[in-house]
Structure formats: structure tokens, C-alpha cells
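Below is one such protein, fold included:
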Amino acid sequence: MCKKKPETLLPAPISRVLSPAPSLFCSLPPFANIGFKPAQNSAQRKAAAAAAAAQPAQPRRHGSKMHHPACWIVFCVTTALLFIPGVPVRSGDATFPKAMDNVTVRQGESATLRCTIDDRVTRVAWLNRSTILYAGNDKWSIDPRVIILVNTPTQYSIMIQNVDVYDEGPYTCSVQTDNHPKTSRVHLIVQVPPQIMNISSDITVNEGSSVTLLCLAIGRPEPTVTWRHLSVKEGQGFVSEDEYLEISDIKRDQSGEYECSALNDVAAPDVRKVKITVNYPPYISKAKNTGVSVGQKGILSCEASAVPTAEFQWFKEDTRLAPGLDGMRIENKGHISTLTFFNVSEKDYGNYTCVATNKLGNTNASLTLYGPGAVIDGVNSASRALACLWLSGTLFAHFFIKF
């Protein structure tokens, strides 16, 4: 029954619904207007029937009828949620209310929930699970992002602004018509662009070590994480579709930048990079003998590859050459070292040794500064081979003519 209770203070949403009428206290007698009665055995039923027959007829009371709209809304919504399974609308069903199909929006956008109704509807409300958002034009939600868009005899729509992941879930359009509540549900799906939350820092390791790179990303749907080696030619770098990239016995040619990409088709992929530096001992890739005449300028060059960059030293026989010696200069630029003779003399000719060193090891190569016509191993080997062939041919011809 709806009884006047002027001194009771109700919550703000309900007081707004009831304004400007006086505050009401809405209650229902036990098991009244719902259709349920307590269980009774046969003896109890007979006793109840005899008592009812003995009592005089009571005049019909109309005070229990809930005339106030807010009481009807609370009663109908509560009944629909707690006691009545509802009338779900299937695809193609012509009944009402008819809510939208699933609504999919990106995080931060606005979601519109529409419910199609007709003139048989007397009361209507939108709910999120068991929480009333709007009842008619009256707002029950305290969330400022929830607003009403349309309330006409044919459509009842609300909007949720700046949607976040916690807004995802079922929403119910509940209507009252001919004292029969009906409901229709729509599911809100919130998509979140991919975002890399944690990724390995740049790393330096020695050749032969094992390396594990980590790339953790979030998003809805869950993003796909891909690793790619950028410091190689297109099509030659390996790809790993996993949050972890593991490299065993790493080689020097596997150094460089590795790109982590997180993709879920909601927005552009989130991309981050990690650099791997692989240390390895030096090796001399280029060292060339040089022939030069007396009085001319001569240069011996030594090229070494190493990480960290190698330091160079020059020796003649067993004697180390110090920078700044008269008539010569030692110059180191990156992975190349040069020994320059500004005015070659006879004493400058001979064998020289280039030594390249870093913290992982060292290597060396021999080079020769020689004069015109000198026969040097590794330099005139081809000429000597031709000379040997010519000499062998001459001896064979001489032997053949003689005999």
C-alpha cells in the first residue's frame, strides 16, 4: 500500500522522481498482487476456509492500489527483475520492446542505447544489471555521463558518454503495458586500442650469450604481439609472434634494432623498439702490402672489425712504433688504422705488424713495405707462378728437341 509518510527523507534520485508530490512510502502486503501464497497442508486449508466463512464480509479496500507513478515503476521493475523471467526479444520478433543488437564502441567514445516501443507502453526504464539508470524522463543514475536522448511513443534512448571498460555489460529496456512487464536486453562491448605497457630496455651482451626480450601489451580484444629484426634486409629478419623473443647463442650479425608491434585492429598498432649490442673480439678484415720507391710517400693500412671498437698498435719486427716518430704518422679512425711514411728510405722497407685489441681479445696481421722489383710473399705470388710455368715449359721444350 502507498501510505503518506511526510517525515521520512528519501534518497535524492527517488525524491526527484516523486517531486512535487509529498514523500510516499511504498509497501506491498505479503504475497499481495504477486500471485504467490504460502504453502498450507490440508488441515490448515480446512481451518482457513472455516474461519473465512465465519467472518462477516469486509468492504473492499482500494487503499492498497499504488496510484503514484514512482510506486508503479519500482513495483514493475522489481517484479520484472526478481519474479518474472521477462520476454526476451529474438531476432525477427515483432513484439516490443525491441532493443538494439550488441553495441560496440571504442574506449572514450559515446554509446547510444535505443529501445523501440509503441503506444501500448505506459511506463519505460533503462537498467544496467539491477541498477535503474532512467525511468521515463527521470534520471535515477548519479553518473553525469548518462543522459537521455529520446523519449517518444516509438523510441526510448539513452547515451553513455566517454565510455570506459567498466561500462561493458548487459543493459535492459523494461516496459509496462497492460500491467504486464516486458524486457529486452542489449550488450555493450567496449574496445580498447593496443598499448605496450612493458618492454625490455636496450641491452649489451657478448657473442654466444642467450637473450630474452619481453613486450607486454593490453587492449580489447587482446592484441597480437610481434617481434621483428629491423637491422637486416627486407625478408631476411626473423619474426616471432609472442610476447617473449628468445635468442640462443647470439651472433654478431643478430645485433641491431628489434621492433615490438601490438595490434588488435581497433586502432593503429603500438610500436616500440629495443636495441641489442653484441660484443665480439676484433678480427682484421683488410691488410694490404704496399710497394713504393725511395723518396716517395708510402701508406700501410689495417682494417679491423670489433665491438667495442678495437685499439690499434704498430710494430716493426719486435719494436713498437710510437706516434709522432720523425718521418711517419699513425692515425686511427674508427675501425681503420694507417701508418704513413712521408719520405720512404731504404731503412723503412721491411715487415710491419698491425695489432687490434679490445676487452674480448686481440688479433694481428703482417704487412710489408717494399721497394720496386721486390718479391714479396702474398704480393707477387701470381707472378712467381707464371714464371715457374714459363721455366717449366722452356725446360720441357729443350728436352724434347734434344731427344
The first helix runs from residue 12 to 18. The domain at 289-370 is CATH 2.60.40.10 (Immunoglobulin-like). Residues 1-46, 57-94, 378-403 have pLDDT under 50 and may be disordered. The two ends are 144 Å apart (CA to CA).
